[in-house]
Known about the structure:
Blueprint: E1 23-28, H1 32-41, E2 45-50, E3 55-60, H2 62-71, E4 76-79, E5 82-84, E6 100-101, E7 104-105, H3 114-117, H4 120-125, E8 134-139, E9 159-164, H5 176-185, E10 203-208, E11 215-217, H6 218-230, H7 232-235, E12 237-242, H8 256-266, E13 270-274, E14 295-301, E15 313-314, E16 332-335, E17 339-342, E18 363-366, H9 369-386, H10 392-401, E19 403-408, E20 411-412, H11 416-419, E21 423-424, H12 426-431, H13 444-449, E22 454-455, E23 458-460, E24 466-468, E25 484-485, E26 496-498, E27 513-514, E28 582-583
Parallel strand pairs: 5-28, 8-10, 8-12, 9-10, 12-13, 13-14, 14-16
Antiparallel strand pairs: 1-3, 1-4, 2-3, 5-11, 6-7, 14-15, 17-18, 19-20, 19-21, 19-26, 22-27, 23-24, 24-25
Helix pairs in contact: 5-9, 6-8
Amino acid sequence: MTTASASPTAPAPQPQRVEVQTARYIVQADSVEQARAAVTLVAGRVLVELQVIRGVGAALTPAQREQLQREFPDLRLHGNRNLEISGLFGRLLSTVELDLSDGLVAWQPKETNYPDWIDADQLHARGIDGSGVSIAFLDSGIWQHNGLDKGLRLSNQRVLATHNVLEDGEGDESGHGTHIATVAASNFVTPSGDFQGIAPNVNLVDVKAFDENGSSTYLDVITGIDWIVQHKDQYNIRVLNMSFSAPPQSYYWEDPLNQAVMAAWQAGIVVVASAGNAGPEPMTVGVPGNVPYVITVGSADDNYTPYDKTDDFLSSFSSVGPTFEGFVKPDILAPGGHLMGIMPSDAKIVAGHKKYLLEDNRHFKMSGTSQSAAVVSGVVALMLQADPSLQPDDVKCRLASATYAAMNGDDAMYSVFQQGAGLINAQDAVDSTATGCANQGLDIAADLAGEMHFAGPVQEDEEGRFVVRDENGEPTELNGDAYIWSRAYIWSRAYIWSRAYIWSRAYIWSRAYIWSRAYIWSRSLPWETTTDHSQVSSDSTESSSSTNESSTTSDGGLLGGLLEPVTGLIGGLLPLDWALSLVPINEWVEPEPQRYHD
C-alpha cells in the first residue's frame, strides 16, 4: 500500500520592506531642548545640537517633516542647503619630484608681494606678527606643512586644534583651506627676507567642513561655527575666516547660516567673509557676506606690477553691493589677484589646473575674494595682538578708517558699492584710534532675538541708480560718483589709491535703520513668489498665499529702495528645495588681470 505524499506547504508571503528615505534639516526653536523634543516626538533622529542658533540638525522622513510642521507651527524648519567651495584658481605647471633631506623639503620659499602691498611687512619689523591670537579657518582642512609651524619639523605647533565636522576624510584633500591658511599665516621667509604670510606667528584652528570637492551643507557649516563659538576661549579664537559665499535665498536675518555668523560676532569673534566672485554686476554679494555686522571683503589686483601702485584695480570678478536689504557691501578691499600660497600637489584643485602650480610643486597661485578674506583675517590678527581689548565693531571701524580709495583727482573711481571704504592698509589699521564708526544703529542682540531687524541706507532711485542716504534721508553726494552709482564699471587707468578720499562722514553708509514695512524695494527679488504682501511684517512667521507671479510695489518712503520682508515661505519656513539645490561658491577664474578698459 502506497501512501500519497503530502504536497509541500507554500511559504507564507513575507511583507516587503520599504526603505523610507530621510533628508537632513535644521530645526530651530526657542531653545535646543525644545527643538530636540519636537524632533523626538515625531520619531525623527537628532544628528547634532546647534547651540549657536538654538536648534538641532535632524534626519526626517517626508511624513515626519509634515508632522513636525503640522504639530509645531512655531518651529522654523530649514532644508539643508548644499554649499561648494572652490576658490579662484588657474591651471598648473608640470609637477617636479621633491628632494627630501632629513624630512625637510629642499626648495627655496617664494616671494609674495601682498604683505608689502598693504604694509604688513612694516608691522613684522615692529614685532607685530599675530603672536598669541588664533584664527579659525572654516574650510576644507589644513595640510600638515612646516610653513604653518614655528620650527622646521612637521609638528604643527601653531595648529592648536583640528576639528572635522565631516564623517570621513582627513587633512585637506581639496587644497583650498591650506592655500587660504598660508596666505594669512605662512611663516616662510622669502629670499628678500620678508615673511610670506600676513600674520606669520598667529595660531590656527582648523575646522574642516568642506570635502575634497569643495562641497558642504548648511548643517555642516553651522555645526562648525557652533564648535568654534563653544571653544573660542579654550583656544583664544579671535578671528573666524569664511572664504565662501552663496547667493542669498532670504533676508539676512532669516538665513540660519547668517544667524550662526551673527552669534559668533556677538560672542566676540571677528568674522571675515569673502564678498563672492559674482561681479561686476550689482547686488551680487553672497551669504554670509551679506550680514551687515561682519567684515565683507572684495578683491583688488596689482596688475602683475607689485611695485607700481598706479595701475592697481578692482578685480572684475569681485562681487558688488548693495545687499537686498539696502546695506553697502563689500566693506573693504584687499589683495586677491593671483596670490601665492601653499597647496599639496595631489590636491583635488590641482588636478586639471596645473598652469599655476610652481616648479617647487608646493606653491600655487589663486585669485578670488577667498584670498582677499584671508589677507584681512591676517591683518585682524595683527590688530588684536597690538590691542587685545578691541571688540569686533572696533576692528571693523579701524579697518575701514585706514583704507585707500581709488581716485582720479578729486573723484572716486569706484562707488562704495564696489570698493567699500577702499583698499586696506595693515599698518594704518593697527595704528588707528578710530572708534564708533561701524555698525551704527544696529542691535545684534535684538536682531538675533527677532525683536527687530535692520535696513541699510541705500535706495534705488527712479533712474535705476543706487543712492546712499545720509542720516537726514538726503542723497549723499561726495567725491563724484561714490555714493550715487549708475552701475557703470568701465574706467581708464588714470587713477591711484589715495588717502585723499578719507571717509569723513563717519562711515555713514553703515548706518542702519529699524526695518519697516513702509520701505519697499522697487525691483523684483529672486525669491519672491507672491503678490500679496498685506500679511507680512518685519518679524512675522506667517506668509501669504503663493502664486507663480512676482510683484513689488514702492511707496517712496525715506529709504524707498529697501525690501518688503521675504514672502513665498511655507508657514514661516525657508524653501525646502534648499535641500536639493547645489549652490556654486566662488567659481574659479583665471588668475590673470581681470579688468575692464575704456
